[in-house]
Amino acid sequence: MVQSSLPDDYRSGFVALIGRPNVGKSTLLNQLMGEKITITSPVSQTTRNRLRAILTTEIAQMVLVDTPGIHKPHHLLGERLVQSARSAIGEVDLVLLILEGCKQPGRGDAFIVNLLRQQSLPVLVALNKWDQVMPDQHERAAANYEKLLTKNNWPVHRCSAVSGEGCSSLTTAMVDKLPFGPQLYPPDMVSDQPGHVLLGELIREQVLLHTREEVPHSVAVTINCVEEFSAAKGKTQRCTAVLATVLVERKSQKGILIGKRGKMLKTIGQEARLQMQNLIDGSVYLELFVKVIPNWRSKPQCLAELGYGGSS
Ligand code: GDP
Ligand code: MG
Q1: Among 127, 148, 177, where does a domain finish?
Q2: 290 - beta bridge partners?
Q3: pLDDT band for position 8 (cuts 50, 70, 90)
């Protein structure tokens, strides 16, 4: 994309992806971007950082802001996550409200719809997970949501973040809602997160996939070191070494994470390594350490050090 030859009607702006936890915000962001930028998981409350993904085309540059889902907070980390999602609404040109088309709308959805109604921002609705709606249920599912969205006049797009169906017309509709303007970021930049943040997130994603109950939400990952070296003398092939610490809150969680004879940690490490290799496009050596910090989720200093700051 050549910056100097942008058309006069080039559009640019910020779009917040808003919705209850687990409706598919992060999956949709990856689908719209055409590559993995953020992690997803069947466990709700996966997204902790507000992440910006930058989609640059010949006609527009759209900055997608992935937010933690809006829900009722139970601890300090939860509160920070909700604050972060709410403040994202104040800073964008467009809101993409994501709803779960395959389920009945609930009170959480009504809460968000109300919140958005109080703003004057343009809103587009993505009725996501449409692949999960049986064809003979299409009309009924759409009618359920019409009731929720009545009086709003927000355009509704049915889509599937997993199969990609409906996503290109959604992108077109999003671009049409952006104001005219220049590129806000270099055209080859895809995310505002430093690379090591995504590496840590890929590890956390595997923890979420492989552990149950209280473990997933008590985990944070820090990347201690990323270093590139040549795989063998005289060879040009790159190899990247990644050393990371997985934080948990209790000794028992450390036990679960390591597993019998280290089996669990090995699985997590192997799968995260494969994901990293896709991202880096070279071989990766990954070493994981597990550390217990009691109640890190309720300690302001720990939250700040882990990047879950209180100010944004
Ligand atoms: P978030 O909390 O809103 O960011 O939700 P995620 O993107 O992490 O997705 C939550 C779960 O829903 C994951 O297991 C996804 O694979 C799944 N999911 C997301 N979008 C779709 C979709 O369009 N269809 C189906 N079948 N599953 C989806
Ligand atoms: Mg998410």
Answers
A1: 177
A2: 246
A3: very high
Residue 263 is assigned to a structural domain of this protein? yes
pLDDT tens for residues 147-183? 999 888 899 999 999 999 999 999 999 999 999 999 9
Going from the C-alpha of 248 to that of each of 216, 225, 302, 310, the distances in angstroms are 9, 19, 12, 21
Q: Is residue 160 domain-shared with residue 223, that is, in the same domain? A: no
Q: Is residue 184 in contact with ligand 1, taking CB distance under 6 Å?
A: no
Q: What is the CATH number of the domain that holds 199?
A: 3.30.300.20
* Pair 30, 155 in one domain: yes
Q: What are the residues whose beta carbons fall under 8 Å from the beta carbon of 278, sequence distance 6 or more?
A: 36
- Is the Cβ atom of 22 under 6 angstroms away from ligand 1? yes
Predicted TM-score of the model (pTM): 0.77
User: Considering its fold, how many domains does the chain have in total?
Assistant: 2
| Percent of the chain clearing pLDDT 70 (strictly above) | 85
User: Is the pLDDT reported for residue 227 higher than 50?
Assistant: yes
Domain assignment of residue 79, given as a range: 11-177
Query: What is the Cα–Cα distance from 25 to 264, expressed in whole angstroms?
Result: 28
Domain boundary among 128, 143, 177: 177
d(CA 26, ligand 1 centre) in Å? 7
Report yes or no on 189 lying in a domain: no
Amino acid (1-letter code) at residue 217: H
Q: Which burial class, exposed, middle or buried, applies to 25 when counting CB atoms under 10 A from its CB (0-12, 13-18, 19+)? A: buried
Q: Is 162 in the pocket of ligand 1 (CB under 6 A)?
A: yes
**262 and 158 in a common domain:** no
49 and 158 co-located in one domain: yes
199/296 same-domain check:
yes
Alpha carbon distances (Å) from 98 to 32, 44, 156: 13, 15, 10
pLDDT per residue as tens digits for the range 242-252: 999 999 999 99
